Automatic annotation (TrEMBL):
Its main location: membrane. The gene is ubiB. The lineage of its organism: Bacteria, Pseudomonadati, Pseudomonadota, Gammaproteobacteria, Alteromonadales. SUPFAM superfamilies: Protein kinase-like (PK-like) (SSF56112). It holds the Pfam family ABC1. Belongs to the ABC1 family. UbiB subfamily. It is a multi-pass membrane protein. The active site is at 285 (proton acceptor). GO terms for cellular component: plasma membrane. It is found in: Cell membrane. This is Probable protein kinase UbiB. Pathway: Cofactor biosynthesis; ubiquinone biosynthesis [regulation].
């Protein structure tokens, strides 16, 4: 199965002529020879542009590859604009599956004999179609509310499982044979990625995520989350309020309505850090196809988010560690950044902190307090990889989703408002958050949160204190008894070993005596003595166990 899927992937790449996009200097001679040997697989898309061929190939390969293309489409600083524009089609313009099939799935999931029972209107042509599902517009018959109905692609799970199986195999090979395999932890990274994809296949989970995000941002001026109709949601169908806004990637339309682009970019950073550090629950699939901008107040723009299949969470330790790193970086305290990495175990304990500090300064100082337009992300990424390899920095799989989301946010910031100073925008938010975590307010907040538990346990405290003191008083006597018992056990073990050795000696002698033609009584006496010693050894050992 894995070999067949690998062949299928290779076939698609060759049919779309993607091997022709690789510079000759990057392809070893044996790779070029192998390509010529596969003479029956030719480029069938010679007249399409490079961007169109890449997009079509990723679309043919399925959801795992489409997700990769979606992420690439936000990195216009790394790709040619024509390629980035074509890849952007993967965000919501993937080829749809038949509408008749979608209607059957909806009827079966909701127990309807006809869609007219629930919807007064239902648009046959999908509004959008992505890697996992497609969306149809509709109107609820009961209230006349405009909604969208999201339907999972049929048999999508089988395709994803096949690709994940192949990814696991490749990850195992890389982890075993690459020099950096253990540090990069590819198997753990693929495991985390698989969790997110499996979660995305359950629309009941997505509805719960959407409800949680809506509650977190209920009164927010920066982000709106549409209403989820949970009573109409199933594992393969989701019904949600229909939103009307401008896709965040449509910069021309945003400018045409005089949107405050600076505020829009700053609010994007605010929304991201609020989700991560205030809520520890963040939308982890924030590519442009899932983000819109409200048309109501262009001077104070508000984001609208959809598609909550992939969300991320952080535990308290990771959240605090990241916040301290960010604040130290914003303050240019590279020594603290280096020390935090060492304390958290991300680098080996024997790392030279002075050298590590200098390496971090080399990467960070050139980009500090610069607008996004003046930062070469590709160069920064290369330096970060080199630094990580040099100091054996271990990859943290639990942060992969966060890192991917940060890439989305940074890519959107470049597109919306290249003059944005990301560091200056985020620093006040993180400093306030840190003060709330370690200041007097934080202490009072924790006391208030624990007060019900303490008040419940308070009446038991005198008895618990008395019992502890009694046990403490009896501890020396108990330790002395245990010490004496241990000495007795050692004595019994030693005696058992002695008897065992003596018994073995007499048995060996009993086996040798017949050679000297002695009376059988001597043999019997020696054997009997040996067996008796063994029995005594067993008794001593049994007593030791008791």
């Amino acid at each position: 199965m894995r070999i067949f899927r690998l062949y299928q992937i290779n076939k698609v790449l060759l049919q779309h002529g993607l091997d022709e996009l690789i510079p000759d200097r990057w392809m070893p001679w044996y790779a070029r020879v192998m390509r010529k040997c596969v003479f029956w697989i030719r480029n069938q898309y010679k007249h399409e542009t490079a961007g169109e061929r890449i997009t079509l190939a990723l679309q043919s390969l399925g959801p795992v590859f489409i997700k990769f293309g979606q992420m690439l489409s936000t990195r216009r600083d790394l790709l040619h604009p024509a390629i980035a524009n074509e890849l952007a089609r993967l965000q919501d313009k993937v080829a749809p599956f038949p509408s008749e099939q979608a209607q059957v799935i909806i009827r079966q999931a909701l127990g309807l004999s006809n869609l007219n029972e629930l919807f007064s209107e239902f648009q046959v042509d999908p509004l959008a179609s992505a890697s996992i599902a497609q969306v149809h517009a509709a109107k609820l018959r009961s209230s006349g509310t405009d909604v969208v109905v999201k339907v999972l692609r049929p048999d999508i799970r089988k395709t994803i499982e096949a690709d994940m199986d192949l990814l696991f195999t490749l990850a195992q090979v890389l982890q075993k044979w690459l020099p950096d395999g253990k540090r990069l932890r590819p198997v753990e990274v693929v495991t985390e990625y698989q969790k997110t994809l499996v979660d995305e296949l359950d629309l009941m989970r997505e509805s719960a995520n959407g409800i949680q995000l809506r509650r977190n941002f209920e009164d927010s001026d920066a982000l709106y989350i549409p209403k989820i109709y949970s009573e109409l949601c199933r594992h393969n169908v989701l019904v949600m309020e229909r939103i009307y806004g401008i896709p965040v990637s449509n910069v021309d339309a945003l400018l045409a309505q005089n949107t405050n682009m600076k505020m829009l970019a700053e609010r994007g950073v605010e929304v991201f850090f609020t989700q991560v550090f205030r809520d520890s629950f963040f939308h982890a699939d924030m590519h442009p196809g899932n983000i819109f901008v409200s048309t109501e107040t262009p001077s104070e723009p508000k984001y609208i988010a959809i598609d909550f299949g992939i969300v991320g969470t952080l535990n308290k330790e990771d959240k605090r560690y990241l916040a301290e790193n960010f604040v130290a970086f914003f303050n240019r305290d590279y020594r603290k950044v280096a020390q935090l990495h060492a304390d958290s175990g991300w680098v080996p304990p024997d790392t030279n902190i002075d050298e590590f500090e200098m390496a971090i300064r080399t990467v960070c100082e050139p980009i500090f307090q610069k607008p996004l337009a003046e930062i070469s992300f590709g160069n920064v990424l290369l330096q970060l990889f080199n630094t990580a390899r040099r100091f054996n920095m271990v990859v943290q799989p639990q942060l992969v989703l966060l890192q991917k989301t940060l890439l989305y946010i940074e890519g959107l910031g470049r597109q919306l408002y290249p003059q944005l100073d990301l560091w200056k925008t985020a620093k006040p938010f993180l400093e306030n958050w840190m003060q709330e975590q370690i200041g007097v307010k934080a202490m009072l907040k924790k006391v208030k949160a624990n007060l019900p538990y303490w008040s419940e346990k308070m009446p038991d405290m005198p008895d618990l204190l008395h019992d502890s003191l009694v046990q403490l008083k009896a501890l020396p006597v108990q330790q002395q008894r245990e010490h004496q018992h241990l000495i007795q056990m050692q004595i019994h073990a030693t005696r058992a070993a002695h008897y065992g050795i003596v018994g073995a000696t007499f048995i060996i002698v009993a086996a040798i005596l017949p050679v000297y033609d002695l009376h059988w009584a001597f043999v019997a006496l020696s054997a009997g003595t040996g067996v008796g010693c063994w029995l005594q050894s067993w008794r001593k050992g049994h007593r030791e166990l008791q």
